[in-house]
Design a protein that fits this description.
heterodimer, A: about 450 residues, alpha/beta, Rossmann fold, 3 domains, 4-stranded parallel beta sheet, 14 strands, about 45% helix, B: about 600 residues, 6-stranded mixed beta sheet, about 40% helix
Chain lengths: ~450, ~600
């Protein structure tokens, strides 16, 4: 397996091998699914929409609805206005959403289609009926990554929908980042446990983790409503989780509606969750309370119980920048050694922040943005690790190098837990510890000499 | 149906179709119901693609036409058809996608075209996703230099025997000359390097990509090695992509019969096999849609004739084997084929009978690909299930109505921009495989070449034929027909299952398979039984919403039967502690 990968490091300037990122539109599509009653629309060739829906479905094992402008060669030459106008008419007639969230593709970006003008004309000619809404985000695939696409669509929600009426509402906005429905559900649970009143957008819980009822709802119960996103302009503050996925939208809301933003990281592990909880409590004007403190205490108890198994273990982490930044801090809290940390996404903030985290405890760590899994694997061949953390695409490396592997991030195409168990918050950290300890001890139990095969660990 | 005996077995009608247990609705009325929501322009288009079937005179279907913008479609793009389907499975050449990162990412190991690298093969390239990962500056200033550099880097690191390059949408728009870059790289590096202009916006579906791939494989690979395999009865299996190991299953049966496969295009195939596949005696076409171009070109240039066959379904497999035997007209081979069929059917029959008992009278609908929606109907028929609605995602009229309509198919703007390459008989290498007398004898015996009659002639009258089905039509179909199972793809699967109908993915096989030939048929029957007869769907409604459910009374009321029974079982064990009289102080300290 992966027999073409050798330890010999060669500088590459043009060839990407086994990417650790994908393109903007899929992130925009995912974000749009977090608006209640929304139909995501892909303005480009059919294939983009098909690929994105397929990949999101493989990850969530749930219906993922989206429409496409179905470009042909003609539209590529003459522009996609006719396609998008006709699409609006069909979508609102046949599928009747409250809102359509358009994202572009490399094709429509290269042509230079002016989406706001097309939306304006479609409202005028009735293709977008009165009372219905269309928003858009520019998501060229040749810039940034899927995380950028997510960020751009969340920014579009603010730009199109959020309004300041002048009356401040007793609520705090939470922009959760490119995380699982399970994580969004957990953030809402934490806020409710603290009696903090939050508005979260996007929110894909109850959209992409629906029950089996014998009914199919094209627009499930979940999702932030347009009214909620609108009201975000009147909130006390915004707590934005993750630099790459959420900060731009929070800053946009700050400048558009003067809602102050707290720019935080994903609440993964003790410290980052502490910061999220105290910030939320502070802005919402509530006490953290004993229920949350109890959860925190149980997490720290577990960390001390299992400290011996984690201490000093070398870890390779690959994933999206917000996720890698957050989980690396947790690994450091566990006194593990995250020696290789990469993201496929570009962005200097990643390397800057990662050095702040690792230069002290793990000075030998290799940190790289715009990297790929091929290079990470080469590093592992030069000096192995005890644990690999990454999305499903890491499984070939894990098998080749016989390294325990924890699936974390997007996409996870071959396992189920991410749909149900969060990784954010104190309970999310317990889930991560559970997964890590199991793969580490399973390997030991499978491979150790018989005399060291222990009943009790 | 033509291939069934004249006296139908129990559960089948006089034409050989299984009789459904449930009454089927009137298809004309259902068709109108499905179409009524559409705006006028959209309805006019969909009317031509949603038909009630007439097997005797198949109606003209508006296949291979544009999907209407805004419709939720199953279809993908040209790149997916070219790189993903036809060429993707070649595992010993290096593949580079020229474009932004997404297209390569989504086509990386997602299609289940399984491969067993040869023992001496250094690298299985299917495990690698390679791309030029174009950035904004490449779009602005052109990506040719980056592509040339990427090819050099790939060659230096992996030393492949060949490199294939695939264009994505922006490449065509900015005008990168991929073919020129490939030609230069080929001259510089001395290995076979070739490009495909398979930009996603070309054509109306994946189908354009299949055609472009066929052209490229034919131009750049087929015919490079004239050394035939030494075995007798050499065939190529065309249009078989080894999803879930299907090609291996077909290989196994053919080998038992003594038929040698030079190349399977393109399931689990090596570069070398493609280069010499023109030396085979016969091309056997399975997926007509994706590869008929190749069959035609190989016949014109090298004289390899082609027949349509199908190894999906037990009867179809036997029929196809006999047809190959008839072509070679060799007594020993024909006898051996009959022996194999007898052996295989003896093993399969009990499974088929058992599964038929559990599945007879159930109904199915299928919307997939360019051949499976047809071929799989035979598997359903094997176990007494009727296909009440079927359609392809990206097929053309000939796949529905049969090749007889080919001369009448209009070439529209979307088809015109797909290259038709001019092929002529090779002056040295064209070898007719049969003499005119042999051909005449075959014809007299009812043997036909290039014989694809399409899906419609084999579907029951008044069943629905739906090309490029939309999400709305799928939902309506479930509401109106309530089929017992639907075969579709990943994008529909969970919609269908939310509605309480099992959905079998016929692209990825839900990570199961193989389903071809005899062992595969048994696998599929059992899979149908598992899916249709599972009790999981019965768990949807909780007992408190089913007043008649006996469990609703369980535990209710102090004297309910369950409570009484348990009380008797634990009666001897339950001892309530009597309160102690005040104990002496000394024992309390004790």
């Amino acid at each position: 397996m992966l027999n073409g990968t050798t330890a010999e490091l060669v500088e590459r300037k043009a060839l990407r091998i086994n990417p650790a990122k994908t393109c903007q539109p899929i992130g925009a599509m995912y974000a749009a699914l977090g608006i209640h009653g929304c139909m995501p629309h892909s303005h480009g060739s059919q294939g983009c929409c098909s690929y994105h829906r397929s990949h999101l479905t493989r990850h969530f094992k749930e219906p993922v609805m989206a429409t496409t402008s179905s470009f042909t060669e003609g539209s590529s030459v003459f522009g996609g206005m006719a396609n998008l106008t006709q699409a609006f008419k069909n979508i609102f007639t046949i599928y009747n959403p409250e809102i359509v969230a358009v994202h572009t593709t490399c094709l429509s970006e290269v042509i230079g289609d002016d989406i706001p003008t097309i939306i304006k004309k479609s409202i005028e000619d009735g293709s977008i009926p009165a009372g219905k809404i269309a928003i858009h985000a520019n998501t060229p695939s040749f810039v940034g990554s899927h995380v950028t696409g997510f960020s751009n669509m969340v920014m579009a929600m603010v730009n199109y929908l959020s309004e300041k009426t002048g009356t401040t509402l007793n609520q705090v906005n939470v922009i959760p980042g490119f995380v699982e429905p399970a994580d969004m559900r957990e953030i809402k649970r934490i806020a409710a446990a603290m009696s903090a009143n939050i508005v979260m957008f996007p929110d894909t819980s109850n959209v992409l983790d629906g029950p089996l009822t014998g009914q199919y709802k094209m627009y499930p119960e979940g999702g932030a409503t347009v009214a909620q996103i609108k009201s975000a302009g009147d909130s006390i503050a915004t707590v934005a989780l993750g630099h790459f996925a959420s900060h731009v939208a929070a800053a946009t809301l700050e400048s558009k509606c003067n809602v102050p933003a707290a720019f935080l990281e994903l609440p993964i592990g003790v410290g980052a969750t502490d910061r999220f909880i105290s910030t939320l409590a502070n802005y919402a004007g509530v006490e953290v309370g004993p229920a949350i403190e109890l959860e925190r205490g149980r997490l720290v108890d577990l960390m001390s119980d299992l400290h011996q198994y984690f201490h000093g273990k070398r870890v390779a982490v690959a994933g999206d920048p917000d996720q890698v930044i957050a989980i690396t801090q947790f690994l450091v809290e566990l006194e593990m050694k995250p020696v290789y940390c990469i993201t496929g996404s570009p962005g200097n903030q990643f390397e800057k922040r990662m050095h702040e985290i690792l230069d002290g405890p793990v000075p030998e760590a290799k940190i790289k943005q715009t990297a790929d899994l091929f290079e990470l694997h080469q590093w592992m061949k030069n000096e192995p690790v005890d644990l690999l953390i990454g999305n499903t695409y890491g499984k070939h490396i894990a098998r080749t190098e016989n390294v325990p592997f924890v699936r974390f991030g997007f996409p996870i195409l071959d396992r189920t837990g991410h749909r149900f168990f969060p990784t954010v918050g104190y309970m999310g950290a317990v889930n991560l510890i559970n997964q890590m300890i199991n793969v580490l001890l399973d390997k030991k139990d499978r491979e150790c000499d018989e005399e060291w095969f222990e009943l009790v660990q | 149906m033509s291939d069934l005996s004249t006296t139908p077995p129990e559960g089948y009608d006089s034409e050989g179709y299984p009789i459904p247990t449930a009454t089927q609705p009137d298809s004309e009325a259902m068709r109108a119901e499905m179409l009524k929501i559409y705006p006028q322009k959209t309805r006019r288009k969909r009317e031509k693609q949603l038909l009630t079937n007439n097997p005797e005179t198949p109606p003209e279907i508006g296949a291979n036409t544009r999907t209407i913008p805004g419709i939720i479609t199953q279809r993908g793009c040209t790149y997916a058809g070219c790189r993903g389907v036809v060429i993707g499975p070649i595992h010993d050449i290096l593949h580079i996608t020229h474009g932004p990162v997404g297209c390569s990412y989504y086509s990386w190991l997602t299609r289940r075209n399984l491969a067993r690298p040869k023992p001496d093969q250094p690298i299985n390239f299917l495990q690698y996703c390679m791309t030029t990962d174009m950035q904004e500056e490449d779009i602005v200033f052109g990506g040719e230099k980056k592509l040339a550099a990427a090819i050099r880097e790939a060659y230096a690191m992996f030393k492949p025997k060949a490199i294939a390059v695939y264009s994505t949408c922006p490449v065509g728009l900015i005008g990168d000359d991929v073919h020129a870059v490939c030609r230069q790289a080929k001259a510089e590096l001395g290995i076979n390097i070739f490009g495909f202009s398979c930009e996603g916006y070309k054509g109306v579906s994946q189908s354009a990509g299949h055609h472009i791939a066929n052209n490229g494989v034919f131009k750049h690979m087929v015919g490079l090695n004239d050394e035939p395999d030494k075995e007798k009865f050499r065939i190529n299996v065309l249009g078989e992509y080894n999803i879930g190991g299907d090609a291996w299953e077909i290989d196994t049966v053919l080998k038992k019969c003594g038929i040698h496969v030079t190349a399977t295009l393109s399931g689990d195939i090596s570069y070398e096999q493609i280069t010499k596949c023109h030396t085979a005696d016969l091309n056997v076409v399975l997926c007509h849609r994706s590869i008929n171009y190749m069959a035609e070109m190989m016949e014109t240039k090298f004289g390899v004739p082609w027949i349509k066959a199908n190894f999906t379904g037990a009867e179809q497999t036997s029929k196809s084997l006999r047809k190959i035997g008839k072509y070679f007209d060799d007594k020993q081979l024909i006898d051996r084929i009959e022996e194999v069929i007898a052996q295989e059917m003896a093993a399969l029959k009990p499974v088929q009978e058992e599964m038929r008992k559990r599945l007879q009278g159930k109904t199915a609908a299928m919307f997939v690909g360019g051949s499976r929606a047809h071929h799989y109907q035979h598997l359903f028929k094997d176990v007494g299930m009727l296909t009440v609605a079927a359609g392809y995602e990206f097929a053309h009229r000939d796949d529905y109505e049969g090749r007889k309509v080919l001369p009448t198919i209009k070439i529209d703007a979307d088809s015109r921009n797909i290259e038709e390459i001019e092929v002529e008989a090779d002056p040295k290498r064209f070898v007719p495989r049969k003499t005119p007398e042999q051909l005449e004898a075959l014809k007299a015996g009812g043997f036909n070449f290039k014989d694809y009659d399409g899906m419609m002639v084999e579907m029951k009258k008044s069943t629905l034929v739906i090309d490029d089905i939309s999400h709305h039509e799928m939902e309506k179909l479930i509401e109106l027909y309530k089929p017992d199972i639907i075969c579709s793809g990943i994008k529909d699967k969970f919609v269908i299952e939310k509605l309480g109908v099992p959905c079998k993915q016929l692209h990825s096989y839900d990570y199961g398979g193989p389903y071809t030939a005899y062992t595969g048929a048994a696998n599929f029957y059992k899979e149908l039984d598992r899916m249709i007869n599972t009790k999981v769907w019965k768990l949807i409604t909780p007992s408190w919403k089913k007043p008649a459910d006996p469990t609703i009374a369980m535990g209710k009321g102090i004297d309910s039967p369950t409570n009484k029974t348990i009380r008797e079982v634990v009666a001897g064990m339950a001892k309530a502690w009597k309160p102690q009289k005040s104990a002496p102080a000394s024992s309390a300290e004790g």
